[in-house]
Amino acid sequence: MLKIRNVEMGDLPVLVAIEHSCFSKEEAATIEAFEKRIQFIPDSFFVAEEAGEVVGLINGPVIEAAYITDDLFSNIKANPGAGGHQSILGLAVSPRYQKRGVAAALLAHLENEASANNRETITLTCKENLIHFYERHGYINQGVSNSVHGGIVWYNMIKKLN
């Protein structure tokens, strides 16, 4: 059974391994970036476990703007108690556990937490091939992002919360 919980520093090695199995070296979060996120935003950094093994992750800071900016990938500060926009900088699932609903469960968990904290939206950037996945989960494509992270074309995706 899938269990979703807040991240712990001890998860770091497996998080880095999952991230690098899902993203190119240029796109993937660094060990240092993960350390900062675990330290500053454990309240919006969740891992999925299957039989005690970490199999997926979702994370991102709460930001003031509606869209992600590239500085967020290295510059993280603690989340405000309420309000703002919940960003998703990373959603990654171990290749062995993909196509099993893990990503959807992580998205739903983050959305519940964001709603409980009165966030305005959930905002993320994705590659073109993932637009349909996020649209199925209620996100609206806002067009090409200004992000040049990893040298890739990213699309702004937004989901309004109640």
UniProtKB/TrEMBL annotation:
Gene3D superfamilies: 3.40.630.30. This is N-acetyltransferase domain-containing protein. One of its GO terms (molecular function) is N-acetyltransferase activity. Pfam families: Acetyltransf_1 (PF00583). The keyword Acyltransferase applies. CDD domains: NAT_SF (cd04301). Keywords: Acyltransferase, Transferase. Residues 2-162 form the N-acetyltransferase domain. Transmembrane segments: none annotated.
